[in-house]
Specification:
This protein is of the alpha/beta class. It has helices at about 10-20, 40-50, 70-90, 125-140, 160-170, 185-195, 220-235, 270-275, 285-295, and strands spanning about 1-5, 25, 55, 95-100, 140-145, 150, 170-175, 180, 185, 195, 205, 210-215, 220, 245-250. Belongs to the dTDP-4-dehydrorhamnose reductase family.
Length: about 300
């Protein structure tokens, strides 16, 4: 079986390659090998390689830049999923797609359920929602995993940025009124693999087709996340310039950005837990593992 992973060099795509390597031939073309912005090139690639499973980890994730590049965001976040879903329908295969907490309105304090009303605040969120809805409407067998605050031991992300700044600066102001769950790419890939069975047909999904929230248990702010990064880094023996008193929380209003951020990114994960018969780990325990992997790679 050919397993086609889009965005294979990204944080989630890289971890998916590690998880799915035992199950078939992983196809994870680089940008030079396949331009996902080119619909004809994608069609030709699918026709040539005929994958039996598609894991769509590609996305336009530059949230602020999307406000000035809506067409580019729409191509990767909406049109590419539409194209992959059409192929999945025609071939009778499964499409796994990764979405975002940004599809929700970001208001209140109640965790979002999978069937909660959507109302994105940004171009990025709107295009991600368009991709979700198109996959659902296509009728293909699908798993849509909505996740939040993705980071990893590799790539560019909040954890690595904080470690760099924490070594250089004695004080930082970090937003403290956006609440969510930091989610490691490794956990996303591990849970994705759990959704498949190799008994009988190769890589058949063993949970109902649909939308699921995939995030650790618990919640924090960006300020809380940063503080725990620094705390765990010190425990691991890292020398930091930043002091516990130097990490100050500020409201979103004091850190304006082109794209509006949701204040409430809490997502209930019980649907996924019940479907897979698992309990999602806490975000703190996942940070310890991800930070260790990063520090050990030096």
């Amino acid at each position: 079986m050919n397993i086609f992973i889009t965005g294979g060099n990204g944080q989630v795509g890289f971890e998916l390659q590690r998880q799915f390597a035992p199950f078939g031939t992983v196809l994870a073309p680089t940008r030079d090998e396949l331009d996902l912005a080119n619909a004809d090139a994608v069609d030709a690639y699918l026709a040539k390689h005929q994958p039996g499973l598609i894991l769509n980890a590609a996305a336009y994730t530059a949230v602020d830049k999307a406000e000035s590049e809506p067409e580019q965001a729409k191509r990767l976040n909406a049109e590419l999923p539409i194209q992959l879903a059409a192929y999945a329908v025609k071939q009778g295969i499964t499409l796994v797609h990764y979405s975002s907490d940004y599809v929700y309105p970001g208001s209140g304090e109640t965790p979002w359920q999978e069937d909660s009303p959507t109302s994105p605040l940004s171009i990025y969120g709107q295009t991600k929602l368009e991709g979700d809805l198109a996959i659902i409407e296509s009728g293909c067998q699908h798993l849509i995993f909505r996740t939040s605050w993705v980071y990893a031991a590799r790539g560019n992300n909040f954890m690595k940025t904080m470690l760099r700044l924490g070594r250089e600066l004695e004080a930082l102001n970090i937003v403290n009124d956006q609440i969510g769950a930091p989610t490691p790419a490794r956990l996303i890939a591990q849970v994705t693999a759990l959704a498949f069975t190799t008994q009988g047909s190769p890589l058949t999904i063993n949970i109902p087709s649909g939308v699921y929230h995939l995030a650790p248990r618990g919640k924090t702010s960006w300020h809380g996340f940063a503080s725990e990064i620094f705390n765990q880094a010190r425990k691991a023996g890292e020398t930091l310039a930043i002091t516990p008193e130097g990490t100050a929380g500020i409201p979103t209003a004091e850190y304006p950005t082109p794209a509006k951020r949701p204040l409430n990114s809490r997502m209930a994960v019980s649907k996924l837990e019940n479907a897979l018969g698992i309990t999602m780990p806490t975000w703190q325990s996942q940070l310890v593992l991800t930070l260790k992997e990063h520090l050990d790679s030096f």
